[in-house]
Design a protein that fits this description.
Layout lengths: L3 E6 L10 H9 L2 E4 L15 E4 L11 H13 L3 E6 L9 H10 L3 E5 L4 H8 L13 E5 L10 H7 L2 E5 L5 H10 L7 E6 L7 E6 L3 H8 L5 E5 L7 H10 L1
Parallel strand pairs: 1-4, 1-5, 2-3, 2-4, 6-7
Antiparallel strand pairs: 7-10, 8-9, 8-10
Helix pairs in contact: 5-6
Length: 247
């Protein structure tokens, strides 16, 4: 059997958001290397596989990436069907691109399977459309956590006029706020902070760019969470406020 690795996106957590292709790959798997943020419920689709936890989460003790590479290569060269199961989409802040390149350089066949990313699922669950005619004609996905700890060009993002979806930004709320304000973004720009996107324990906090750090502190916002910054973040807010008032 030829060596092959599937890099599969498991989505943000809701098992019903899995694609049919992801389910097929898991059903055929001999070995599954599962990320920390993947909902373990989805493992019912790979009951015949050996499951190996290779957790990676910002700010926590994580499995070294080089070790994950070597595990995938080892099992693939043994002729096993290997699934690398990732939260969200493997190519949106999921290292799918670098893993695919590393494996292909060593002669291993790789197939990528898209998953729904947390920024999309979380916003949708809050009735926030990431694009909306007359309000936002585009969306920009960024991560506040970079490999070399460098800062993004927040001024360019502030001037871009698109909806911003920020991943891994909870620890850098003050930097994000200050940089966007300095870049010219309006202080009253709506912000939706969404924790545990698509899961039953999903929570949301509506705020503005000026107040988001203080509101997040009062709300006790925790990772994993995404930020939606833009005029669309005010859509659905009336329903949110009414629901919160009746809770």
């Amino acid at each position: 059997m030829s060596a092959k690795v599937w890099l599969v996106g498991a989505g943000p957590g809701d098992p019903e958001l899995l694609t049919l292709k992801a389910v097929r790959a898991m059903n055929e798997a001999d070995v599954v290397l599962i990320d920390d943020l993947v909902n373990p419920v989805v493992l019912e689709h790979c009951a015949a596989a050996r499951v190996i936890t290779v957790g990676k989460r910002g700010g926590c003790r994580s499995t070294p990436q080089d070790f994950i590479h070597r595990l995938m290569l080892r099992y693939a060269r043994q002729g096993k069907c290997v699934v690398r199961l990732k939260g969200g989409d493997p190519c949106i802040f999921g290292r799918g691109g670098e893993e695919a390149m590393w494996l292909r350089e060593r002669g291993v066949e790789v197939e990528l399977v898209n998953g729904i990313t947390a920024g999309l699922a979380g916003a949708t669950n809050c009735s926030v459309p990431l694009t909306l005619r007359g309000v936002s004609r585009g969306v920009t996905l960024v991560t506040a956590h970079t490999q070399d700890d460098s800062s993004l060009n927040w001024r360019a993002l502030a001037e871009g006029g698109t909806t911003l979806v920020v991943y891994m930004g909870v620890a850098k709320l003050e930097e994000i706020r200050l940089q966007l304000l300095e870049g010219g973004m309006a202080a009253d720009m709506p912000v939706a902070m969404i924790e545990n996107a698509s899961l039953p324990q999903q929570r949301e906090c509506r705020s503005t760019l000026l107040r988001m750090q203080e509101d997040a502190r009062v709300f006790a916002l925790k990772s994993p969470a995404i930020l939606v910054i833009g005029r669309v973040a005010a859509v659905g807010q009336a329903a949110y406020v009414a629901a919160a008032a009746s809770a």
